[in-house]
Amino acid sequence: MAGQIELTPNLLDYVDSVSLREDSVLERLRIETAGIPLGKAMQVMPGQGQLLAFLVRLTAAREVLEIGTFTGYSTLCIASALPADGKVVTCDITARWLSVAEPYWAEAGVRDRIDFRQGDATTMLATMPVEGFDIVFVDADKSSYGHYLEESLRLVRTGGLIILDNTLLSGRVVDADANDADTETIRKVNAQLRNDERVDLVLLPIADGVTLLRKR
Description:
The protein is α/β, with parallel strands linked by helices. The chain contains 9 helices and 7 strands. It has helices at 9-19, 24-34, 39-42, 46-58, 73-81, 98-107, 121-125, 145-155, 181-194, and strands at 63-67, 87-92, 114-118, 133-138, 156-165, 199-204, 210-215. 34% of the residues are buried. The mean pLDDT is 95.
């Protein structure tokens, strides 16, 4: 049986060439975002956005919560996969990048499926309905991932899906010299989830690490 294949740049290009279906609206939003300082590092990769849309369709999700909006690339992927009466509630500490996101949301015809909320997510999550979401996608400040995980478990329905981004944190999780707060938090969350009987679990070594959790 083969082991883990090495994902060389040429192989990743091949994967995109035979599977990526990024439409022109998403592509232009991604390119504009890449021109923002740290924009390329902060937004999800196109294949990862396609995975989000795939999971929304696969689970027949109607209500999605996104923690961390930035320029709204992942928001657009999610919203485009929802039914016409579906909704994605997306939260961010700042509305600074909403002027970038909204024209693309509108052009894609999904602005009415997106409920953007500005503020501290730790405060906003406390006001949301228990078990009201089919999917929760977490892609915000890493030092708060422990809190976001617990809130996600409270807010997602039984059988629903929680998606945690950046759970390999650029490889720092296995770097003995990396002891910053973000890395320590991600390590702690990953270790906790290994034996957390509240969820089914898989950590996918794609992009910067994507952890999928099904609430039991």
